[in-house]
Amino acid sequence: MVKFLKQFEGQLVPEWKEAFVDYWKLKKDLKKIHLLNNEKTENKKQTNYSSSTLVSTINKYTSLGMKQREHKVIQVHQKLAASASKEYTYETELLEQFADTDAAIEFFACLDLQLNKVNQFFRTKEKEFLESGQSLKKQIEILIELKTAVKQQRAKGPSFQDTKEEDSISGTISCDEESVKDRTEQEQGLENSTDELDKNNMQCTESPTYGELGKSMRMRKEDGKFRSLSGRIINYQGKNLRIHIPMTNPTRTFSSITYLLWDDLVNQSSKKCGPDENKLHINRMKLHHAEKMIRGAFIELYKGLGYLKTYRHLNMLAFVKIMKKFDKVTNKQVLPIYIRVVESSYFNSSDKALKLADEVEELFIKHFAEDDRRKAMKYLKPTQRKESHSMTFFIGLFTGCFLALFVGYVIMAHITGMYRPKSNTVYMETVYPVLSMFSLLFLHFFLYGCNIFMWRKTRINYSFIFELSPTEELKYRDVFLICTTSMTAVVGVLFVHLSLMSKGYSYAQVQIIPGLLVLVFLLVLVCPFNIIYNSSRFRFLSVIRNIILSPLYKVLMLDFFMADQLCSQVPMLRNLEYVACYYITGSYKTLDYGYCMRTTYYRDLAYAVSFLPYYWRAMQCARRWFDEGHKSHLVNLGKYVSAMLAAGAKVAYEKEKSVGWLCLVIVMSSAATLYQLYWDFVKDWGLLQFHSKNPWLRDELMLQRKSIYFFSMGLNFILRLAWLQTVLPYNFGSVDYRVTGLFLAALEVVRRGQWNFYRLENEHLNNAGKFRAVKTVPLPFHEMDDED
């Protein structure tokens, strides 16, 4: 039977762990009482029989009084808190002597503290969710009104001016002079931009508000934080509404930039046009974006209410379990008295959250699921994919196949002498890059599977951090299956290729095989059919698209996490570029493997590939600084700029190996390494906190052994110095230099694998410190009052 403590820790909300009952601490205090009781029992056994007879006689005459006192072992007092919030706290008074009264007092003091903590946290979260619920109800009402107006406009037919436009409703632009684009801590990373409005629909008519439109989207800095004066306000049915659609894609980004340019034109022409009334159109596309945002907010609210329900249930169960243990240890009947108080406390008696959950469910079914409850539950309560034992079987099967084929490939390569310094140049220049590319890729993917396994074991909520859907996220078994299957196919094909060559087939006859292997993997990656983890493949492609266009797309955690992975895969990207050039240009037909290296534009592109991952990551830092206004993003940008400068010095040194370039490489690489080590340890991992309770680490650690953190820091430091191989080239015996390069590239991938774990551990602890268990979704409609 599973112990309750493990069951309790396995079911609690990870980000709210500190707000749950500290069952481990209560159990520890109870164990102290149990030990003292055992000592008292042994002392009582040594007393003589006469003393026992005397005590029994006294008890006989006072049995009535004892029976009356049995029901009053403790008394729990309810007191009004010192704050003005009218919250009650609980304090327990002992009415009967225990074996060790001091230990019992300490236990009940801790128990009261836990009860008060649970009540306070529940009240705070319930208030937060109730406010969100009221706000969402207003949002859905506004959305319904606007959608109804659009339908009515469509029924009337397009006017002469709108014949070429979508169905829309018109409103008057009002001026919002103090709209603030200021992030709260919970809204970091969520951009409050205005929606896309058709600038062609704005006409210069007479209204006193026209001259103020120039203030609408001007960005300025006040007190170190970005602020914007948003003029996207419509007056509809007596309501002033400001509409915010985040700039999450290039279309909206360009729309906002265009609006800024239009704003300047309006400023220049407002005096010439005179007072004017602006017409603003909200078409169906804008309403669709607003509806999508509101739907996401409903889902997150429902998820949070579900967490609150779990919080109530687990804490109630913890109180019952610990009081049962207390009664068993002390032989007292305290459980009914204290649990009666717990049942009547706020966290267990308040039903506001439960009612709100029912209302949210009804509203979602009605407005977002077309009254189809089953369809609504797919969004509100997505079911987890069940893991089957067959997957474990296939992982073992393909692992065995991969090892057998790999051993056969190594033996055949050794016999043919492919990997020696004076090996077959054609093979090493054309086929080996394919093997190297797939090896680095799936080694990285395998380490990601190991990361997932460790994140789940340490209760790090990586799905929430990466914003992954529970129905679509990859489990570690899925990752291992993909790795073993793919590498079995790769090594199998290359083994067949090498076997054909050893049997006398010419390069021209078998050279197409590695190219076809790469082509098959690319086709599987972009396959539009619902096969082979299609949702994960599409998400991966969308993340790569976001990285390539990083200044234009809003940067999410998964985006810059993936961009960091690409920074460790520069050798793989260069191999991919070379293989693509070799087969696309048709060089494989003539075995002219040096054609790409002789081509100027290819060499320039090869150098660009070395810079691109760092450039993309730097652009992401710039975009996050623009969105959030935190200077730390600019400092992080400097880290990637230093990496680009170091990479540029290495490229120049490879072209012209002189003492001057060598000195520059050493200086630039050393500076970049120190910069990166500081950021790894202090910012990304949150370590090297001198005044923490864990010296040189941090206060909260997910791993029990502190030595693991010091070992990881040392390993990260050593692997960061891999660039020294550029300055001090070294080959392992008679092994080809390309194999040495693959080994060093694999070490960087391993370093990134361990970096991933500590990066998400630190992110999880930041979320837990702020009790963030659900996303904060920006709402599209903001109703303005007269003061605004």
UniProtKB/TrEMBL annotation:
<dbReference type="Pfam" id="PF03124">
    <property type="entry name" value="EXS"/>
</dbReference>
<dbReference type="InterPro" id="IPR034092">
    <property type="entry name" value="PHO1_SPX"/>
</dbReference>
<dbReference type="GO" id="GO:0006817">
    <property type="term" value="P:phosphate ion transport"/>
</dbReference>
<keyword id="KW-0812">Transmembrane</keyword>
<comment type="similarity">
    <text>Belongs to the SYG1 (TC 2.A.94) family.</text>
</comment>
<feature type="region of interest" description="Disordered">
    <location>
        <begin position="154"/>
        <end position="205"/>
    </location>
</feature>
<dbReference type="InterPro" id="IPR004331">
    <property type="entry name" value="SPX_dom"/>
</dbReference>
<keyword id="KW-0813">Transport</keyword>
<keyword id="KW-0592">Phosphate transport</keyword>
<dbReference type="GO" id="GO:0012505">
    <property type="term" value="C:endomembrane system"/>
</dbReference>
<feature type="transmembrane region" description="Helical">
    <location>
        <begin position="391"/>
        <end position="411"/>
    </location>
</feature>
<dbReference type="GO" id="GO:0016036">
    <property type="term" value="P:cellular response to phosphate starvation"/>
</dbReference>
<feature type="transmembrane region" description="Helical">
    <location>
        <begin position="659"/>
        <end position="678"/>
    </location>
</feature>
<feature type="transmembrane region" description="Helical">
    <location>
        <begin position="708"/>
        <end position="728"/>
    </location>
</feature>
<keyword id="KW-0472">Membrane</keyword>
<feature type="transmembrane region" description="Helical">
    <location>
        <begin position="512"/>
        <end position="533"/>
    </location>
</feature>
<feature type="domain" description="EXS">
    <location>
        <begin position="597"/>
        <end position="788"/>
    </location>
</feature>
<keyword id="KW-1133">Transmembrane helix</keyword>
<dbReference type="GO" id="GO:0016020">
    <property type="term" value="C:membrane"/>
</dbReference>
<feature type="transmembrane region" description="Helical">
    <location>
        <begin position="476"/>
        <end position="500"/>
    </location>
</feature>
<dbReference type="InterPro" id="IPR052486">
    <property type="entry name" value="PHO1"/>
</dbReference>
<feature type="domain" description="SPX">
    <location>
        <begin position="2"/>
        <end position="340"/>
    </location>
</feature>
<dbReference type="Pfam" id="PF03105">
    <property type="entry name" value="SPX"/>
</dbReference>
<feature type="transmembrane region" description="Helical">
    <location>
        <begin position="431"/>
        <end position="455"/>
    </location>
</feature>
<dbReference type="InterPro" id="IPR004342">
    <property type="entry name" value="EXS_C"/>
</dbReference>
<protein>
    <submittedName>
        <fullName>Phosphate transporter PHO1 homolog 1 isoform X2</fullName>
    </submittedName>
</protein>
